[in-house]
Automatic annotation (TrEMBL):
Entry binding sites for Mo-molybdopterin: 613, 644, 758, 925
Cofactor: FAD; [2Fe-2S] cluster; Mo-molybdopterin
Gene3D superfamilies per the UniProt record, alphabetical: 3.30.465.10, [2Fe-2S]-binding domain, Aldehyde oxidase/xanthine dehydrogenase, a/b hammerhead, Aldehyde oxidase/xanthine dehydrogenase, molybdopterin binding domain, CO dehydrogenase flavoprotein, C-terminal domain, Uridine Diphospho-n-acetylenolpyruvylglucosamine Reductase, domain 2
Gene Ontology MF terms in the entry: 2 iron, 2 sulfur cluster binding; FAD binding; iron ion binding; molybdopterin cofactor binding; oxidoreductase activity
Membership in a protein family: Belongs to the xanthine dehydrogenase family.
UniProt: [2Fe-2S] cluster binding residues: 6, 8
Protein name, UniProt field: Xanthine dehydrogenase/oxidase-like isoform X1
Organism in which the protein naturally occurs: Actinia tenebrosa (Australian red waratah sea anemone)
SMART domains reported for this sequence: Ald_Xan_dh_C, CO_deh_flav_C
Keyword Kinase assigned: no
Catalytic residues (positions): 1107
Positions annotated to bind substrate: 856
PANTHER family noted in UniProt: XANTHINE DEHYDROGENASE (PTHR45444)
Co-factor binding details: Binds 1 Mo-molybdopterin (Mo-MPT) cofactor per subunit. Binds 2 [2Fe-2S] clusters.
Length: 1163
């Protein structure tokens, strides 16, 4: 599970899928043997709340004979000796010897060859050429290097042994040996358990971890601590033994191995002294599949004396604090002979601070220093506990995942084939799960197809003095190089339009396309792109919001909302708080990057397959860029591998580039961005800074609020206006603010244009507001729950933008949340935990949520549909919405089946195409089911009316009979449908009118645990209650709620976009940018859809569910802050303080204050 990255589901559904293979499968709400307590064994009725998202009885029973196996055709016969390989490519030669002798001979013949066993991160071959190809010597199939030997001294592993084999061997030996003998192995096993996923452990070998000599290598750190010995063998067959230490690990990529040597084996000795203790520690940005920021391994040999213990010998090793693994020799020497008591901690930490001076360019210096100290203190505490309790050092037991989901079941009177309100599986779930679903880059290659790779600027702001493509054009396979001068129509696109497809005279952000190399293959295009020479003249760059404010660099577009008398409100306030808060941006990290395929036709026709949320926009933009009419361009979008707002306008960059290339060459052209190019060029969720002033009464009632919200739009406007508008309209969350004056400003900076992302604008504004409510509670000295309740909206209240709240269920939702989460009892338990624990603190937080549904762009509030009935009774529907994985097509199938009175099995939702449903709107904003559902229903209602006479004349007939009769009677069985919402009448000038169609309400309670020494956090539990009306499909909606919440939790905690001072994005892929894994989700995750709620403003009384849970995710951030508050109170820090988002481990640790320093000061 932890090896899987998913941006959509929140992982619960994946857990459920895996659990169906388990023998002890249960709903987790009661013992499996107790039918009355297991919710999945309860019968449904209209008075009950259902919790069955899928029917267990529909699953095939377990059959051992059908267990998945490795294909026999691909298995090597164990008796067959692996053969040698010599594969010669254009740029890389791969040599795989099958014996040790052959390997040594090849090493002698190719001394510069890269010797490896298992996966490495060196990226060999990237700098290769025909004249200087890279030679790789693969040692993975040599028997001696895969050997494992256990003797009385320890365990010896061949250098090619995988990390998975290392782990299983360590576990077996530990289980069969005495505890005091295997403490070195236990430390190793702890390291391997934290190392990575099962997939990575099988791919990586011991040597591939040791030889890069990486500063953050977990394996090297613990090998040094346990006193491991390495054996090297020369090309002459001579072996030598080397102690694994800092004399072996010289610098990144360099060890003391001679040029004619390879690593042969690693020996891990048993622990020989009962008073010797060893352990390993690490801290990374997320819990699984992440490189350590700092790691540490310690070994201490103690001598027991009458008055306690003293140190005989020790080993103190750190990774991530220097250029390679570091041994703190001075600190080791200084504690030798000292008593093992609290005084040794103070002494050791002083020595470590003096000895380990961190270079500034390492980054996070203060935090890394705190980890150096914190890890040593953890080791001291762990060893002291072992000595005191006379028990072996144990690891924290992992908490098993559990969850529940409840929703209102369908009425008993509802027909069985009517799937409205029932948890129907995603119509393409099987295809997506098995890899059958076809995305753009899965489309088979067309004859003569070419590939483009765009050349991106590495400067944030510079004039382009010259572009030399001569050498690139001479590269093999290159067909053409596209520049701004090759664009037949306009080179400027976007909302204004203010963004170039290819930079012409200057670049305005790092990652901006300058040209595109068109070649026969992607590899050829990439190699040629590196040969394009661009000469720049650098210009001053504006990167951050603070830079923009200082330079007065803003877009002209701005909005304000003023309501009431702010000045009078502040005059009447008992307390006035002023301050600033920042929330960082977030990458969409859709699994499918931006991808497009353009196929030119005759008469200037162009067919484009595009991963986009807005095919009609792509059509119109390509029309302008090629200077040909829209009726010659067809855009098709079938499956999109995630979008989250990032494929609305940003998809046009790639689509236009391939269209221009196809237009120029007359051949099909494809482009699928690599992850780093996508992240550099395609924008993110905007980071925001708020400067605020709030006044309140002594009992916590808000009486005045004034703020300016600064958004980092980047180098072009894109959808920043809409983002700002949504922020200003939703910033109140659930609170009545009588006097308000708020303004949004859009900063123009030299980073890639930022764009829409799930919960656009509102995700930033609501975090600011909820953080402010907490500060008000602290200032007034009253419970946070009370502050929220007395400021909370009631039915009929007017918002700050003067819209009346109709069917406002927030107080009902809030009450249900308090009941279902057992908030008050858990709050007392958290307080008790915090009093008993100094180094770990818990926080519990509960917040309400309100979100207005609908766009402030009226053109986006319409859609069309085409429904066709065939003579066999099957139905094909097409509508203006895009299936991004969110289940839109599934819901539309349910709507069509309901409207026509037929089973869903007869309805097929085909891909969207601009020649089928023209002028479609964007898919997003939690409104797609509403507008497309109504359009589909409109078309189906027309068809039902046409078929009705044949049902009347043949009431005992079947659907197929009526269809045949209508067809025979020359009745059209195809119809278009259309829907438009005219709800948006709001005026920014007058602050009057209706801004939203309706509101979604909800609440969330979250409990977390924070490690005050490292800043690590764990989400222990999250409970969500949402009012989404009558759910069209509870399975789809609950999945959206869970996925949105986890995506939001990532935004507010571990996901951090980092830029260099000169504007280059540093977090450009999975190695540097971290999204949540299954290890980061709540250990208990409960979702409840409010029952008996109806919304008469949307299809079948439903509400949009796609974005709202992102806006509940600030609860994680604020629960963490709650835990940090407890830590700060312990050391006398009780004032209001600034705590910015995301709450990374570094930010958490530094906010906790220097508890360790205070502790040591008392010794």
């Amino acid at each position: 599970m932890e090896g899987h990255l998913c941006r959509c589901t929140g992982y619960r559904s994946i857990y459920d899928g895996f659990k169906t293979f388990a023998k002890d499968l249960c709903c987790q709400r009661g013992p499996c043997s107790d039918d009355s307590s297991c919710c999945k064994n309860k019968p449904e009725s209209k008075h009950d709340t259902s919790c069955c998202l899928f029917d267990l009885s529909s699953l095939k029973p377990y059959d051992p004979s059908q267990e998945l196996i490795f294909p026999p055709e691909l298995m090597l016969d164990k008796s067959t000796k692996p053969s040698s390989l010599d594969i010669k490519g254009t740029f890389v030669r791969w040599l795989r010897p099958s014996s040790l002798k052959e390997a040594l001979d090849l090493k002698k013949s190719y001394p510069a060859a890269i010797a490896l066993a298992g996966m490495i991160g060196a990226g060999f071959g990237k700098n290769s050429s025909k004249e200087n190809p890279t030679t790789v010597l693969s040692l993975s199939h040599i028997p001696e290097l895969n050997a494992v030997k256990v003797d009385e001294k320890g365990v010896t592993f061949g250098a090619a042994v995988s990390m998975a084999t290392l782990e299983s061997t360590l576990r077996d030996v530990i289980q069969s040996s005495q505890e005091n003998k295997t403490r070195s192995l236990s430390a190793m096993l702890k390291m391997v358990a934290l190392y990575g996923s099962v997939q990575i452990k099988h791919a990586m070998s011991i040597s591939s971890n040791i030889l890069p000599a990486s500063s953050t290598s977990d394996l090297n750190t613990v090998l040094i601590a346990v006193g491991a010995h390495l054996v090297a063998i020369s090309t002459e067959g001579q072996k030598r033994t080397i102690l694994c230490d800092d004399k072996f690990l010289l610098s990144p990529g360099k060890t003391s191995l001679a040029d004619n040597e390879i690593l042969f084996s690693v020996h891990i000795p048993f622990t020989t002294n009962p008073s010797e203790y060893i352990s390993f520690y690490r801290q990374s940005r997320r819990h699984a599949n992440d490189t350590a920021i700092v790691n540490a391994a310690f070994r201490v040999h103690l001598d027991k004396k009458d008055n306690g213990y003293s140190v005989v010998d020790s080993m103190i090793v750190y990774g991530g604090v220097g250029s390679t693994t570091v041994i703190a020799r001075k600190a080791m020497e200084s504690i030798k002979g000292r008593a093992w008591d609290e005084s040794i901690v103070s002494h050791a930490l002083t020595q470590l601070q003096e000895e380990l001076v961190l270079a500034v360019d390492l980054g996070q210096v203060e935090y890394r220093q705190s980890l150096i100290q914190g890890f040593f203190f953890k080791f001291y505490s762990d060893v002291s506990n072992v000595i005191t309790n006379d028990q072996p050092m144990t690891e924290q037991v992992s908490i098993p995942f559990k969850s529940s989901q409840t929703f209102e079941p369908a009425e008993d009177s509802q027909k069985e084939e009517d799937m409205i309100g029932r948890p129907l599986a995603h119509t393409t779930a099987i295809e997506r799960a098995t890899g059958v679903a076809q995305f753009v880059d899965d489309i088979p290659q067309r004859r003569g197809e070419l590939y483009i790779v765009r050349l991106l600027s590495d400067r944030a702001h510079a004039k382009i003095l010259s572009i030399d493509v001569t050498e690139a054009l001479d590269m093999p396979g290159v067909e053409a190089i596209i520049q701004a001068s090759d664009v037949p129509g306009t080179n400027n696109i976007g909302v204004i339009p203010d963004e170039e497809i290819f930079a012409k005279e200057k670049v305005v952000y790092a990652g901006q396309p300058i040209a595109a190399v068109v070649a026969e293959t992607k590899d050829e295009a990439q190699r040629a792109a590196k040969k394009v020479k661009v000469v720049y003249e650098d210009l001053p760059a504006i990167i951050t919001i603070k830079d923009a404010i200082a330079a007065n660099s803003f877009f002209e577009e701005s909005h304000s909302i003023v309501n009431g008398d702010v000045d009078s409100g502040f005059d009447a306030a008992d307390h006035v708080l002023e301050g600033e808060m920042y929330v960082g941006g977030q990458d969409h990290y859709y699994i499918e990057t931006h991808t497009s395929l353009a196929i030119p036709g005759e008469n200037n026709e162009m067919e484009i397959y595009c991963s986009s949320q807005f095919p009609s926009y792509i059509q119109g933009t390509v029309s302008q860029v090629l200077n040909i009419p829209s009726n010659r361009i067809v855009v098709r979008t079938k499956n999109v591998g995630g979008a989250f707002g990032g494929k609305i306008f940003r998809a046009s960059q790639v689509a236009c580039a391939v269209a221009v290339a196809a237009y120029k060459t007359g051949k099909p052209v494809r482009c699928a961005l690599d992850r780093d190019d996508d992240m550099q060029n395609c924008g993110h969720r905007e980071d925001y800074l708020v400067k605020y002033k709030v006044g309140c009464s002594k009992d916590g009632q808000i009486v005045a609020f004034k703020a300016v919200y600064f958004g980092n739009s980047g180098a072009a406007l894109d959808l920043s206006i809409l983002i700002m508008e949504k922020l200003l309209l939703n910033l109140d969350n659930c609170y009545k603010i009588p006097n308000i004056d708020v303004t949004g400003r859009l900063c123009k900076t030299n980073i890639a244009p930022n764009t829409a992302m799930r919960g656009l604008g509102s995700s930033q504004g609501i975090l600011f507001t909820e953080s402010l409510m907490s500060d008000i509670a602290k200032k007034c000295g009253i419970p946070e729950r009370k502050v929220r309740e007395q400021n909370m909206y009631k039915e009929g209240n007017l918002t700050h933008f003067n819209q009346s709240l109709r069917d406002c269920t927030i107080r009902r939702v809030w009450s249900e949340m308090m009941s279902k989460s057992h908030y008050e009892n858990r709050r007392l338990a958290v307080d008790s935990f915090n009093k008993q624990n100094k180094w770990k603190k818990r926080g519990i937080f509960v917040m309400p949520g309100k979100y207005g549904i609908g766009f402030t762009i009226p053109d986006f509030m319409q859609s069309g549909a085409l429904v066709s009935i065939y003579t066999d009774g099957t139905v094909r529907i097409s509508h203006g919405g895009v299936e991004i994985g969110q289940g839109l097509h599934t819901k539309m199938v349910q709507v069509a089946a309901n409207a026509l009175g037929i089973p869903v099995s007869k309805v097929f939702n085909c891909a969207i195409s601009t020649d089928t449903v023209p002028n479609s709107s964007v898919t997003g904003g939690s409104y797609s089911s509403d507008i497309n559902g109504m359009a589909v229903k409109d078309a189906c209602d027309k068809l039902s009316k046409r078929i009705k006479p044949y049902k009347v004349t043949n009431p005992d007939g079947k659907w197929e009979d009526w269809v045949q009769a209508a067809y025979a009677d020359h009745v059209s069985l195809s119809s278009t449908g259309y829907y438009q919402s005219r709800h948006f009448t709001y005026s920014w000038k007058t602050n009057l009118g209706q801004a939203f169609k309706y509101f979604v309400y909800g609440a969330c309670c979250c409990e977390v645990e924070v490690d005050c020494l490292t800043g690590d956090h764990t989400i222990l539990r999250a409970d969500i209650v949402v009012d989404i009306g009558k759910s069209l499909n509870p399975a789809i909606d609950i999945g959206q709620i869970e996925g949105g919440f986890i995506q939001g939790a990532g935004m507010y905690t571990i996901e951090e976009l980092r830029f260099s001072p000169d504007g280059r994005l540093l977090t450009t892929g999975p190695k540097t940018y971290k999204i949540p894994t299954s290890a980061d989700i709540p250990k208990e995750f409960n979702v409840h859809i409010l029952k008996e709620s109806r919304n008469d403003q949307a299809i079948h009384a439903s509400k949009g569910s796609g974005e709202f849970s992102v806006l509940l995710a600030p609860v994680v951030f604020l629960a963490i802050k709650n835990a940090v508050n407890a830590a700060r109170c312990d050391i006398g820090l009780d004032e209001i303080y600034r705590f910015d988002s995301p709450a990374t481990c570094e930010r958490i640790r530094m906010a906790c204050g220097d508890q360790l320093k205070n502790k040591l000061a008392s010794i």
